Amino acid sequence: MQKMVSTSWVILFVVTSILFFCNSVAGQSLKRSAFLGAQLMDLSAVEEETGADFGLYLPMILPEGSLGEMGVPAKSVLQKINGFEIKSFQDIQSALSPIKEGNNLEVVVLENGKTKTYKGLAVGKPKEKHTHASIDYGVVRYAGNTLRSFLYLPNEVENPPVVFFLQGYTCQSIEMRDNNPAKQLINQWIEKGYAVYLVEKPGMGDSESAIPCMDIDFNQELLAFTKAYEALQNNPKIDNQNIFLFGHSMGGIIAPLLAQKTSPAGIMVYGIVGERWYDYMKRIYTEQPLIFGNNQEQINQDAQYYLPFVKDLLVHKKSNSELLKSPIYGERLKQDGVADNLANGYYITRHYKYWQTLADVDVPGIWAKVKAPVYVLHGEYDIQAIHPKYGEMIVTNVNQNGGNAQFELMPKAEHAFLHFDSREEHLNTLNGGGYVAAFTTNFNPTIGEKCIEWMNQQRK
Known about the structure:
By secondary structure, the chain is α/β, with parallel strands linked by helices. The protein has 18 helices and 17 strands. The chain has three domains: about 40-120, Roll (Pdz3 Domain), CATH 2.30.42.10; about 135-275 and about 360-460, 3-Layer(aba) Sandwich (Rossmann fold); about 275-360, no CATH class. The longest helix is centred in the middle third of the chain and has 19 residues, at about 295-315.
């Protein structure tokens, strides 16, 4: 069961976090976040003997990054950042998030079997130079938060239409390399004359926030996107009559919520379902395992534990300590490695209260109120969104309530905008450890092309 759970959610995680080589342009009122400048690998993926029992392997280090400036050699194992033990990719995010350019930086690595400490100053992320756009690095300010925003303005286009890209649920920076499939999608829009707007979540990237992303609930996250949406509408550099919302994964729930404030020119969503979160989570434990080839007997057995768990979490709103004490599933949570994180307040890389407040959102009711044109896209091999019918329910809902929505299946596409020739190839890549390589090489351009075609039809 745990394998099924981790496989289904890890893909969302790697969308923004496979590589830590991120580019950007410095802003005026926020310091740049620290640029580690290293490729990171899990120790289990390293063929040679490292002698380390924890840490992340450093197969490649850029000389201009923080580690390179301090002289940390490649093929060492990163074990601590400013005293914070590094045992996972999530630990990297937690350790680096408070560190800005110019701050003191101390790392401990295992180098040729010996522990060595390096000290220096953090290097800020380098500036991005975009071939087809200028980039405005702005800020979105509201109580307790100063968030970094990014506005890509296509060259030689005055007051362009704009796409507000709403990212998924993970607490990761939205700055991406050009080989990231989400960035490739964004670049398609830019090359066709569309501006693209993005905003960091609280505490991510350059942002400064009283409460970090990992500890906020869904309503606090929605507020961040709401404030960014307000700022975008008042930006004189774009055509505010032609603002399009693109919600990827969890962003597909944020999008219709933003539309309640100010109706956009259109809403596009990809990789999301049109039902309440509790109903979706039940499918994660009863329908999604079938995609992975799990037999029905095993699914039923696992569901005995996890269906009561998600009901207690999302419906009964039990605390993490109450959940861990359950006589029904408490022991199973320990066996599956869920208990340790939940004891600290986290489930699937977010605070458990994030999921509880998300479960309060009446997703069908929100979509029923949307009057802007809606374009629902579903990847043929999207494991996270499970089945096309759960995207089609959005279209049915909108149209039955006087709106205008259409559905389109994206052939050979999966959740992270990647192309695979078959479901079998996709699953083999996931199970065989080849997804990281495919992530930067298998972009499916059809998704962006279809979005451009649809937006051109909707522009005012």
